[in-house]
Amino acid sequence: MTEYDIQEITFKIERKYFTSLSDSDLNFITKAVHFYYENTKMQFIDNKIIETHLYTFELKKNKTLEIIKAHIPRSSGYKKIHIPSKFNKYRITSIGVGAFRHCDVSEIFIPDTITEIKAAAFEYSNIIRIKLPNKLKSINASTFFCCDKLVSIKIPEGVTAIGNEAFKDCDILKKLILPLSLKKIGSKAFSHCSNFEKFVIPDGVNYIGFDAFEYCHNLKTLILPEGLTELNDIFGYPPHISEITIPDSVKKIKWLPYSIIIKCHKKSYAHKYAKRRFRKYELI
Question: What is the pTM of this model?
Answer without folding.
Answer: 0.82
